[in-house]
Specification:
Shape: globular
Distance between the termini: 24 Å
Helix content: 25-40%
Number of strands: 5
Mean pLDDT: 85
Strand content: 15-25%
CATH topology: Chloramphenicol Acetyltransferase
Radius of gyration: 18 Å
CATH class: Alpha Beta
Structural class: alpha/beta
């Protein structure tokens, strides 16, 4: 059992709920708290693809609120919130699929004219947990890699993009060859957004959970 799993178990959670707790704590440190209740909104994509499923979009989304305070001492609450969010929102997935099909038909001018305050007002934190990944990805050149990680890439975003008016925080996690990785994409308006500052926030959040890791 690696340190990550041992810590999750000691807090009454799982690897997935520890990742969610880590994301919530990181969000609090970076200032992504809802104004009304100081909670963190976690947004998760859920894989809905089945065998021989050739749909272009086989992802659905859930979101739920988390109190970032208790997560370093007890993950049972966040574990329950995640389970309840999946159960309560699974019936709405079909509705989401209908809306996604209309996305290419929405005029860009309409999106540009949406009130900026309404975009990301809850300061959602994106979380993608890939779970256990086939060990073959660590042997792309025939030898085993020391570390493997994957990250989210989104093209054509600038500081003036509507999507970034409230900043962003997105975390991707997975496990390859017994090692857990977490990658980060973060942006805070009106700061220098240096890699050094982000690495310090990551180190501080790891310390909150009594965890250590390689930060690059």
């Amino acid at each position: 059992m690696i340190d990550w799993d041992a810590r999750a178990e000691s807090l009454g959670g799982t690897s997935n709920s520890l990742f969610a707790g880590f994301a919530a704590r990181m969000a609090a440190r970076i200032g992504r708290l809802r104004a009304g209740d100081n909670m963190v909104t976690l947004a998760y994509p859920i894989n809905d693809r089945t065998e021989n499923d050739l749909r272009a979009n086989a992802l659905k989304g859930i979101d739920f609120a988390v109190d970032p305070g208790p997560v370093t001492a007890d993950l049972r609450g966040i574990r329950g919130e995640m389970k309840q969010a999946i159960i309560s929102k699974v019936g709405k997935f079909d509705q989401q699929q209908v809306v996604l099909a209309l996305t290419p038909l929405v005029p860009k001018v309409l999106v540009r004219n949406l009130p900026l305050a309404a975009l990301g007002a809850d300061l959602p934190v994106g979380c993608s947990n890939l779970g256990d990944i086939d060990a073959a990805v660590a042997h792309l050149d025939g030898t085993e890699a020391d570390y493997v990680s994957m990250r989210l890439v989104e093209a054509n975003l600038t500081r003036r993009s509507h999507e970034l008016i409230h900043g962003e925080l997105y975390l991707v996690s997975g496990r390859v060859c017994g090692k857990v990785f977490i990658t980060f994409r973060a942006y805070r308006p009106d700061t220098d957004n240096s890699k050094h500052d982000l690495c310090e926030l990551i180190a501080a959040t790891l310390a909150d959970f009594n965890l250590a890791g390689v930060i690059e």
